[in-house]
Design brief:
alpha/beta, Rossmann fold, 2 domains, five-stranded mixed beta sheet, four-stranded parallel beta sheet, about 45% helix
Length: about 350
Amino acid sequence: MMPEKIAKIAQIREKLIQYPKVEISTFRTPIEYLGNVSRELGIKVRVKREDLSGPAYGGHYSRALEYVFGEAMKNGHDGIVHGGPSHSNQNRLIAAICAKYGLKCHLVLRRKLPVDRHDVGNLFLDQLMGADIKWVTAEMGPELDREKETRYQELVREDRENPYLFRRERVAFLSCLGMLDMFLDTYQQLDEIDFMPSSIYLTGCGPTHSGILLGTRLVDPTIEVVGVRPLHWNAQEIVSGEVNTAARNLGEDIFVSHDEVVNPPEYVGEDYGVPTQKGNEAIRYFAEREALIFDPVYTGKMAACFLDHAYDGRIPKGSRTLIIHSGGTPLTLLYSDTIYQSLGMRLDPPDIL
């Protein structure tokens, strides 16, 4: 690695030290070479296995949440209030971290889709780890934020505990720092194995994309970051805003415009949490060739985008690409019937003697 990049990484880490952090991700996840996919596509492809990071089936949120929980615990909070869709990977990890650190977990969950009524997958794990759940019908975004605020105020009035409320802008900033931290680790790891990609593919339209994009702009602007949003939000506005906020707070002279954020909208499909045919086919593609298991809500849709770009030449032959596997294994099992049917799979029942 060039001396100026080593110095820049060290400088960024010095700035990150000012923010409290707790250890959630306990080991360095591997960057695996996908030999079968690489040979077939004519592209050198590796995957960062963040699905192996952290407790309770893990995921990249274990990195994003280290600074959030660091702030909550430094300020003496004894509980967490957050919310989202019923089978959120982030909420599963929040419940897991609360269990590990002895904090009470309060989740305000949206009930909208048919799978929201299934006490399996992430929802089962949330309850198994002791999360207190309140059901609402609010849409994700400001409407659900108001429900979280209401739950927080209820707990404060009852004087039962001193909870930390996940307020959108603050948590987005701290999570962006966590993903920037993860990028710095990943970049050094890539340098050690002599595999510097020309592009990085990930799923998300918030701190995951923002933190990694900020990292590339600070350390290696030649790397293109392609995010794939899982829901119909304005990814360009959200990501550019989070990058610029984090850069400003870190004292870095970086500005990203909306147009510089690459996050195509066409892979969402009907709605958040609704699998797509392309996504399901991409899940089978990677499972059959690499035993790599993606999910139909997040990583499967990202994989579909990656394959399209590989086939249409947007990713040049012979180039190097890194895929971030952010986790979500429980979702694959939750949606197994849907994936099974969409792919025309069938298994004859065994003969019963």
